[in-house]
Amino acid sequence: MLKDLQLFNELVEVLISEEQNNPVATPINTTELFDTLNLQLNDDPIVDKDFKKTVTDIIKSTPKTASTSFFNQLFGGRISRATLGDLLAVMLNNSMYTYKVAGPQVGIEKVILHKICEMINYPKSADGTFAPGGSMSNYMAVLMARDKYNPAARNKGISNTMTLYTSEESHYSITKNASFIGVGRDQVRTIKTNDRGEMLAEDLDTQISKDIENGLQPFFVNATAGTTVLGAFDDVEKISIICRKHDVWLHLDGAYCGAVIFSTQYKSLVKGIEHSDSFSVNAHKMLGTPLSCSIIVTKNKNNLYQSFSNEAEYLYQTNDDDFNLGKTSLQCGRRNDALKLWTLWKSVGNIGLESIVNHQFKLAALARKYINNHADYTLYSFENSISVCFNYKTISAKTLCTSLYEDSKLMVGFGKFRNQDFVRMVTINTLLQEADILNFFKTIESFTSSTDLLTHNR
Ligand SMILES: *Cc1c(COP(=O)(O)O)cnc(C)c1O
After folding, report:
1. Model confidence over 23-32: pLDDT tens digits?
2. Which domain, by its residues, includes 139?
3. Both 284 and 314 in a single domain?
4. At residue 456, does pLDDT exceed 80?
């Protein structure tokens, strides 16, 4: 192992140097991928020297998500204390289902979950778990709601029509999950949003009332803290009143921006969160841990047991169920995703997490200001969002983003709200400083002036 750890260090040095010198890896066309890199598996082993060369080549060609040119996705950067925790989790290789095989790692997971429940003012009965991503956290939430409002579903399946509600700007996992839980994609009601992309509570109320009148069973509302494109926050307080009125489950999908709960300045964006029945947040997005680190908490832990526990004598041989996390989890064998968040949190404290969150809003404000001060840009996003959506001159967003990528200048994506396409740059990358934001715009400006994008457009 020690020899491979040394090799690991050498490879990581290659990676870090690439991140600095070639921050956007030269993309390989899919038709050339298998001819360019030695990915094939053969009967005979590869010799050590060739192994190192092959892995080095792969590292060099892999997109660099921890470079200051990466603005493409809702994650990015690297915080070394969090990465250290994840590396340790790999070395320790526990499975989180029982106290017997995970020991103190169970305590680490529970400390995080309880702290988050406390921060959002959930009662003592609350608890949670780590899921393999935000989509799966949303899945766990909607499954708990199904089993609460239709207790027969777990054993007998569903025989009536259950309906669920989410805004047109919400994450696509809500629709997928409706199919997974046997309710069906057609039973998802898409609620309209205002011109900032926030769910219209009045429309929600109308839709639920209509479904009740038609003899259907509304059971679940998904609100979003940070919609995937615009980064909008639904009004949890207002939506929770409608949910209470009709007695339906309220889930708050905070995969993208739920981490605002760590910020005194920004937690008002999820005002009313204590009225939700469940809440999820991805630490691998705003908090900058390695992928994946997704947390789901719910107000009453009985709902977790009701939907996810199974007796398994071969597995649960010791200790009380509170420490056998397999009884409240989606998986059987489960990776330790808690340790990386714990090593980070322990190292920087609540105040450190708060400044990670605040910094992203500050950079986004700087980017919006730059756009507003430069007439060649059009801005589409709003205050209190870390998604900065814009267009440059008359260049289509898709053309601009694709050309920047193909020329190894920047990785940035595009999105759409209503019928408007735009570039969506995100200030979530934990490495970014103010200079990187200005550099982002300068790169676009010098790149477009040196190409014929403007003349060959639209
Ligand atoms: C990213 C995101 C998800 C999905 O999270 P994964 O970890 O990618 O599965 C769900 N909801 C919202 C709002 C998101 O931004």
Report:
1. 999 999 999 9
2. 84-343
3. yes
4. no
